[in-house]
Structure formats: structure tokens, C-alpha cells
UniProtKB/TrEMBL annotation:
<dbReference type="Pfam" id="PF00571">
    <property type="entry name" value="CBS"/>
</dbReference>
<dbReference type="Pfam" id="PF00072">
    <property type="entry name" value="Response_reg"/>
</dbReference>
<protein>
    <submittedName>
        <fullName>Response regulator</fullName>
    </submittedName>
</protein>
<keyword id="KW-0902">Two-component regulatory system</keyword>
<dbReference type="InterPro" id="IPR000644">
    <property type="entry name" value="CBS_dom"/>
</dbReference>
<feature type="domain" description="CBS">
    <location>
        <begin position="265"/>
        <end position="319"/>
    </location>
</feature>
<dbReference type="InterPro" id="IPR011006">
    <property type="entry name" value="CheY-like_superfamily"/>
</dbReference>
<dbReference type="InterPro" id="IPR050595">
    <property type="entry name" value="Bact_response_regulator"/>
</dbReference>
<keyword id="KW-0129">CBS domain</keyword>
<dbReference type="GO" id="GO:0000160">
    <property type="term" value="P:phosphorelay signal transduction system"/>
</dbReference>
<dbReference type="InterPro" id="IPR001789">
    <property type="entry name" value="Sig_transdc_resp-reg_receiver"/>
</dbReference>
<feature type="domain" description="Response regulatory">
    <location>
        <begin position="7"/>
        <end position="121"/>
    </location>
</feature>
<feature type="modified residue" description="4-aspartylphosphate">
    <location>
        <position position="56"/>
    </location>
</feature>
<dbReference type="InterPro" id="IPR046342">
    <property type="entry name" value="CBS_dom_sf"/>
</dbReference>
<keyword id="KW-0597">Phosphoprotein</keyword>
Length: 319
């Protein structure tokens, strides 16, 4: 089944935000056009067929609610999501009264914004009450950082924390700026802090497994248990001597950092078809006791669907 690419117009006066958000949205499978002013946005809407507009309320030439009013006069059915770090309940209410689809405050979870864009798209197409499929909620494969099986655990941690980038033959992940409050951090993909895991690939770029925070802790636990078996007297002394105890922890962590990723990584997640229902996905997550599934289209990996993605959809339906 061919999936339509959602056409998004992003309107924000900050070039850095436009550049960063464009990267984020493209990794999520959207086609993105940007505008730096309200006037520019209006002109582009006149000439192009967008599905959703993501509009910053605070801009120098005209207020976002004024832009929203003009958009609704031009194209009443075009869905608009208001996005701002300067919002107030009054401006939010004004925007919703003028027909805004949603009002989100910066910084917002990229998964939540992605969900709202998709919801707005489906509403615009008259499909608001149609059950989503796995492909509609999955996180595209390119949104996840990757590491090699033969990398060290220390290198993998750098990637997971967003301090290092891997460039492969088929997947190129550019560092992008993500603004969090008043701070700007450099990260290799959309949101490592949200995914909390990286994909592990072999030399041919095939996904072989995943590596998460839990795997690091389990690796530390296995090192500790081995120490208990091989040198119980050292562990006993450490328990009675706080000074020795801190030294042992540091040594164990450093030893762990030198291990290859293949020794810590979890197996490749179970798979599910891209056109499967969300009920099937939820049942598979529960029955297999896993937190994520690889989404397949034929023999090709398309992305990952997590329990969090299904929870967002459930929350939307309940509201």
C-alpha cells in the first residue's frame, strides 16, 4: 500500500529552529517547506497544497493568530498547529476559537508534535476516526542512532548520549541542534533521550540488535557477579570499606567500557508488519514482553514502534 507523504509548512522566524525542525520532520517522513515570516507563509500557501501548517505564534511581522486568521480565510480546511514558547492561555484560546487544530508549547516532545501533525492530516482528509495502522505511528528507522557490533561500549555510550555520530554506507546521520529551554545541545538524531536506545548494525548495515540503558546496567551486573564468583574476598572487603568500594565501581565501569557492543546488545526486536493493526501491535508487545517492535514492509525494515507510541494514540482517543 502506497503511503502519501504529508506536506508540512513550518513557519518560524528563527533560522536555527527552521533548520533543526526540518531535519526532525524529514526523518519522520514528512515533506517540509519553511517560511520565516507570516507574509511569506501566506504567499506559499497561495501557491502550494499543504496538508498541515506548524505555525509559531511569536513572529516580528505579524502575530501567529493573525496569520492563522488569514490562512483560514484562504483555505478553511487547512489544519494549523500553533507552536510557541511565549504562549498564554488567552492566546491559546484565541487560536482555538479561530480554528487552530492544536496549541503546543515549546519545547515539546517531537513524538507528540509528530502525532499532532498526523492527526491533523487525517482530520483534513476526513479520516479522524479511522483506526491507525502500525505504519502511521512508527518511528522511521533513520530517526534512530546506530552503532557497530565491533565498537566499544564506551563509543556506544557516546552515541546514545548524542556526543558522537556514525556514518554508514546507507544511513547518514547529521548532527542537528535541538533547543531545550534556553539551552542548545548537539545530538545525532531526533531525540536520543526519548528513544533511550540505539540500533546495532553489522558491516553491511543490517540491524542485528539494540543497545539500551538497561543493557549497560545489566552488563555492569554481570561484571559484578563474575567478581563475586572469582574474587569474593575483594567484594567482602569492599562492602566493609567505603573507600575500596568506590574504587571497585570505577574499575568495573571502565572495564565495561572496553568491551565490544556485541557482548552487551540485546537481540533484534521481534517484527511486525507495517499494515498490522495497533491492537495486533499491543498484543505482540505484551505477549512477547518487549518494549519495541521492528516494523517490516516485506523483507525491509521501515522503522520501530514502541509501547510509548501506542500509549500516545490511546491517550488521544480517550481525550
Amino acid at each position: 500500500m502506497e503511503e502519501k507523504t504529508i506536506q508540512v509548512l513550518l513557519v518560524d522566524d528563527e533560522e536555527r529552529i527552521r533548520s533543526t525542525a526540518t531535519t526532525l520532520f524529514k526523518k519522520r517522513g514528512f515533506n517540509v517547506v519553511t517560511a520565516s515570516t507570516g507574509a511569506e507563509a501566506i504567499e506559499k500557501i497561495k501557491k502550494n497544497g499543504f496538508d498541515v501548517v506548524v505555525l509559531d505564534v511569536k513572529m516580528p511581522d505579524m502575530d501567529g493568530n493573525e496569520v492563522l486568521h488569514k490562512i483560514k480565510k484562504l483555505k478553511p480546511a487547512l489544519e494549523v498547529i500553533l507552536l510557541t514558547g511565549y504562549g498564554s492561555p488567552d492566546s491559546a484560546l484565541a487560536g482555538m476559537r479561530q480554528g487552530a487544530f492544536a496549541y503546543l508549547t515549546k519545547p515539546c516532545d517531537i513524538d507528540l508534535l509528530t502525532l499532532k501533525i498526523r492527526e491533523a492530516f487525517f482530520k483534513g482528509k476526513g479520516m479522524a476516526d479511522v483506526d491507525r495502522r502500525v505504519r502511521d505511528l512508527m518511528v522511521p528507522l533513520t530517526s534512530f542512532s546506530s552503532v557497530r557490533m565491533d565498537w566499544t561500549v564506551a563509543e556506544a555510550i557516546e552515541v546514545l548520549l548524542g556526543h558522537k555520530t556514525i556514518v554508514t554506507a546507507t544511513v547518514e546521520e547529521e548532527p542537528v541542534e535541538v533547543v531545550i529551554g534556553t539551552k542548545t545541545i548537539i545530538t545525532t538524531t531526533v531525540d536520543e533521550g526519548i528513544h533511550r536506545c540505539v540500533l546495532v548494525r553489522d558491516k553491511s548495515d543490517k540491524v542485528m540488535g539494540v543497545l539500551s540503558f538497561t543493557d549497560f546496567l545489566q552488563g555492569l551486573e554481570s561484571t559484578y557477579m563474575r567478581l563475586v564468583e572469582e574474587r569474593p574476598s575483594v567484594v567482602d572487603r569492599a562492602g566493609a570499606d567505603a573507600q575500596n568500594h568506590s574504587g571497585i565501581f570505577t574499575k568495573m565501569v571502565r572495564d565495561l567500557g572496553r568491551k565490544p557492543v556485541r557482548e552487551l546488545m540485546a537481540d533484534k526486536p521481534p517484527t511486525i508488519d507495517a499494515d498490522a493493526t495497533l491492537l495486533e501491535a499491543a498484543n505482540r508487545l505484551l505477549s512477547l514482553n518487549v518494549r519495541r517492535l521492528l516494523v517490516m514492509h516485506g523483507d525491509k525494515v521501515m522503522g520501530v514502534i514502541r509501547e510509548k507510541d501506542i500509549m500516545f494514540e490511546m491517550a488521544k482517543i480517550i481525550r
